[in-house]
Every structure is written in C-alpha cells, then in structure tokens.
Amino acid sequence: MELKEYLTIMGKRKWLITAIVLIACLATGFKSFFYTTPVYSASAKLIVNQAFEYQGMSMLDLSTMQTNITVINSYKEIIQSAAILDKVVEKYPDLKMSADELRGGLGVGSSAESQVMDLSFTGTSYPQAAKAVNAIAQTFKETNPSIMKVDNVNILNKANPDAAAMSINTSPIVLIFISFVVSFMLSVGLVFLIHYLDDTIKTEKDVEAQLELPMLTQITKIDKYGSKSRKPSSTKPNPVKEGSYATLNQ
C-alpha cells in the first residue's frame, strides 16, 4: 500500500485513535498527579583513609591505599548491619524509623579504585532523608573503631536538610508523553488490525481487487422518497471491451 492509503485507513478511524490516546493520557496524568507519592534522595560521603607515621609525620603509601580500598567492601556490609542501624534508632529517636526501615531506604556504594564511600537514603520527605543519612554516617564513624579496631573513617560531606530538593520520581509530564507515544502506536496498530480482518467490500477498488474484474457501472441506493443516499462515484468507468464484467449494487 502507498502512504496515502495508510493515511486514509487511519483517517477512517481517527476517532478511535483519538479516544484511545486521550483516555491513556488522562489516566496517566490523573495517577501521576494525584496517586503518585514523591520520593526524595539525600546523600553523604565517607572516606576511608588510614596513614602511618614516619619520623613524626603521617604518610601514605600505595599498599596502605590499596588496603583502604579493599576494606571498603567489608564496611559496606557493616554499615547496613544491626550493629550500626540499631544504634541509629537508639541515638536518633526523632527519626521515628526502625532499623528495617533504615535498611530499606539506605544505599551504599563506591567507585572502583576509590577510597570514597557514597551513602544515600530515599524517603518521602527530603529533610527526613537527609537527617537519616547523616545519622547513619555519623554513627558508623563513631562505632567503626570499636568494631574494626582502627579509626580510618572520616565524613567528607553531609546532606543539607534545608536544601531545596526535587523528587527522583519520573516527571508527570514525561510519563504523559510516554503514554501518548505508546497509546498512539497501539491504537494505530489496532486500526490496521481491524482493517486487515475486515474483508467486506465497500468500494469499486475492493471489487476489482477481489474479483479481478473491471467495473462497468454502479447502481446507487435509492430511499423510499426517491432520493439517492449518496452521490455516484466519480470513478471513470472502464471502456467497454469483450470479456467479463462486474456490477455493484448499493
């Protein structure tokens, strides 16, 4: 089929396409604005840095740095353990969160070959998320020496509870746009599927395509008042030749 035929098929069922797209976009927008809870993320950074003293001066060498990087994997597990989170719950009752809730919102990561640990906490309130991640970072720094028998953790930066923050949820506008694109594609596919399954004959071209016979004439439908229901087709009749012909009653 040519492009004009595709557009004609879509045009015949434009209201179906419009209805599907409109319903999908309205449903997505309604859910996004009224039933989606915003989620915020706050982060803090820790550095694992243990030096040794040489002639009264703190020194760092490659082996010490490599040891610090290796021990980070252990710290990732320790910081999410009950040994840390239970103390956070005890020391910061204003958070009003259990150890399991803290563990569920906590994320711990680090870059490859880096001594820096990234702590993040997600929650429905940014100030609460910032306070929680700061409390976890501070508690880990204070508790780690008694667990690992070494004091090599420092806080690089804390989250600012008063900072303006944007929710990390997908923007409603983006969701509506995605819904528009997906629903439009699905509705167009549905229209072409309906057209493919519909084998009724509606036009002169359908007759010629099905019977492989040229159109000789067309009889229009006459209502009881004697008027034609529609104008005759403007298709020019094929010249009369010998052979078979088909007529179309409407």
Question: Can you describe what's shown?
Answer:
With 250 residues, this protein is α+β, with helices and mostly antiparallel strands. Helix content is 49%, strand content 17%. It contains eight helices and eight strands; from the N terminus they run ααβββαααββαβααββ. About 2% of the residues have low confidence.
Q: Characterize the main sheet.
A: 4 strands, antiparallel
Spatial strand sequence of the major β-sheet: 4-5-1-6
The percent range for strand residues is: 15-25%
- Estimate the mean pLDDT confidence: 81
- Total number of strands: 8
- Give the H and E element order: HHEEEHHHEEHEHHEE
Number of DSSP helical runs: 8
Topology:
Layout lengths: L2 H10 L1 H21 L5 E9 L3 E3 L2 E3 L2 H18 L2 H10 L7 H7 E5 L5 E8 L2 H23 L4 E5 L14 H26 L6 H8 L3 E5 L26 E4 L1
Parallel strand pairs: 7-8
Antiparallel strand pairs: 1-5, 1-6, 2-3, 4-5
